[in-house]
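Annex B.
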Amino acid sequence: MSYLLAILVPPLAILFQGKPFQAVFNGLLWIGGLLFILLPFVVGQGAWLLAVIWAIVVVYNSRSEARDRRLIEEALRRRG
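YqaE/Pmp3 family membrane protein: predicted structure tokens.
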């Protein structure tokens, strides 16, 4: 679900991952891209695509960090 949100509304997906400052900058990039897509500029498509890729990477890294934390905690419990 987070990946779908990252594609449709990237700033919201980043905000849900607990990164408000990145969400603000991604929102500016995303909205700027959407505005330029309405005009016949290729720059708008690039900005929109960059915002989507950024959100997908943030969601992926957030899930990866959570998985790593779980694995470390489990390893420490087994050891201790």
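The radius of gyration is 16 Å. The first helix runs from residue 2 to 8. Further annotation is deferred to the next reporting cycle.
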